[in-house]
Amino acid sequence: MMELSISPHILAGLNLTSATLLVMGYLFIRKGDRRSHKRCMLSAVGVAVVFFVIYIYYHANAGLAKFGGEGDIRTVYFSILIAHVPIAAFIPVLAPWTAARALKGRFKKHRKMARWTLPMWLYVSVSGLVVYVMSIHLFPYAQTTLPPLSP
Q1: Residue 108 vs residues 32, 101, 105: alpha-carbon distances, Å
Q2: How far is residue 47's CA from residue 115's CA, in Å, rounded to a whole number?
Q3: pLDDT band at 141, cuts 50/70/90?
Q4: pLDDT tens profile 101-137
Q5: pTM above the 0.85 mark?
Q6: Based on CB atoms within 10 Å of each CB, which residue in 5, 64, 111, 139 is the most buried?
Q7: How far apart, in whole angstroms, are the C-alpha atoms of residue 138 and residue 13?
Q8: Which residues are within 8 A (CB) of 67 and not within 5 positions of it... i.e. 6 or more apart?
Q9: In the prediction, which pLDDT does 19 show?
Q10: What are phi and psi of 65, to 5 degrees?
Q11: Which helix (H) or strand (E) holds 43?
Q12: Could you tell me if 41 and 21 are in contact, meaning their C-beta atoms sit under 8 angstroms apart?
């Protein structure tokens, strides 16, 4: 079993890997290199599957993370998170569907769908990294233990 405390760091690494593969895949297709594009995009799907498995395992066992920031930074953090969560719910459907269209040779439909899937997936990957940095490194939740009240 995986140590739960390292899971957020692994998930962040997978998010970074996914974003990198997506950008590389996009650049390859813009150059007309379909073979490299296909490799990057299928690798991104594979990384996303690993991410999803670890994410489910982590949150099933550790619950939701708490944000320790106070004041205006909470508004920034939760604004990013509120956009991140619903878009992230679509990616496990959109990414394989978009890839399947390409694998079946339906390139016109693939391109049409990829114009939506790519920016959404990139937003989820990058905003996931921002949420990670903000909640784990910049503003971790510090659970304070207060002394009991005296009678």
Answers
A1: 15, 9, 9
A2: 20
A3: confident
A4: 999 999 999 999 999 999 999 999 999 999 999 999 9
A5: yes
A6: 139
A7: 17
A8: 74, 77, 78, 134, 135, 139, 141
A9: 98
A10: -75, 150
A11: helix 34-62
A12: yes
Scan for tokens 């890839």, then name that residue. Answer: 99
Please determine, for residue 13, whether its predicted confidence score (pLDDT) is greater than 80: yes
Structural domains of the chain ordered from first start: 4-138 (1.20.120.80)
Residues with Cβ within 8 Å of 55's Cβ and at least 6 positions away in sequence, in order, are: 11
* CA distance readout (Å), 122 to 18, 23, 87, 91: 8, 8, 10, 10
- Average of pLDDT values for 12-16? 98
Question: Which band of pLDDT confidence, cut at 50, 70 and 90, is reported for residue 146?
Answer: very low
Neighbours of 7 (CB within 10 A): 17
The structure tokens listed for 129 are: 């990294």
- CA–CA separation, 149 and 151 (whole Å): 6
In the structure encoding, which two tokens stand for residue 19, read together?
A: 């974003």
